[in-house]
Amino acid sequence: MLTRQVYTLEEAFRCAVDIEQYMKATTARKVGASTGEFSKKLGQTPFGFKSGSTATTTDKGKKPMSGSASASKPSSITCFVCGKTGHYMNQCPQRVLFLSSKTNAENEEEIEDSVEEDDVDPMEEVASVVEEDIESSQLAVMRCIIATPKIDPDWRRTAIFHMYFKCGEINCKLIIDSGSCMNVLAMSAIARMKLKAETHPQPYKVAWVNETMIPVTQRCLVPIQLGTYSEKIWCDVLPMNIAHVLLGRPWLYDRDVIHYGRSNTYTFTFKGKKVKLNPAKPKEP
């Protein structure tokens, strides 16, 4: 037991517990053995007679005592266990010698249990502790893996196509929207772009999202120049503040425009040349 090699604090603790149990068991055995020897010695009379035999002595010059006289004489033997007279300690009905043997048996069982536990490799316990630490660290890592990373979305995914064009010396904002059923010019842009409106040949009414009916009574010929693309487009005049010009389904249909949803670009052919319109990035608020 003492030659066991100790590498960790857990092994040192187990070794100390085993030595302590071993010392307790050894002490209990010594006490039990000495008690048994002492009891055996007390079982003999001081004069070498066996226990349980009646001592009969005859004094020279005196008449032997009769049986009745010896029986009536009180006994001088005192038991060291119960304190009563008439018997020795090994004959005492209250003797507790069996407790010593029981204690020894319990100690032996504890020693056997400790020996069986010592058969277990202490490194297995250390390994189990290490595995628990690893599992806890893995849980922390899993939380980081499961966490949704913050990804900046592509601004083109939610942005409506818009760009800027020149009308003379003035920069104007243009929006292309396939959901609009007409080409629109903002009423405030007429003076800005120095244009002249005329009466609409076929007046009508339009309704916005809130179902408010707005009469359309004017139209205007708007010059648009986008790089090599230059054209004048008829637009209906309406109160609008989202842009200066809005090109809807009429312009998309007339020019057979193709829209690419992911890149949010428009391409078409004008006078035998392919024209591509790229969107402008929205201004951050």
TrEMBL record:
Keyword Transferase: no
One annotated GO molecular function: nucleic acid binding
Positions with biased composition (Low complexity): 64-74
PROSITE patterns linked: ZF_CCHC
Domain CCHC-type residues, every copy: 79-94
UniProt keyword annotations, A-Z: Metal-binding, Zinc, Zinc-finger
Name by which UniProt lists this protein: CCHC-type domain-containing protein
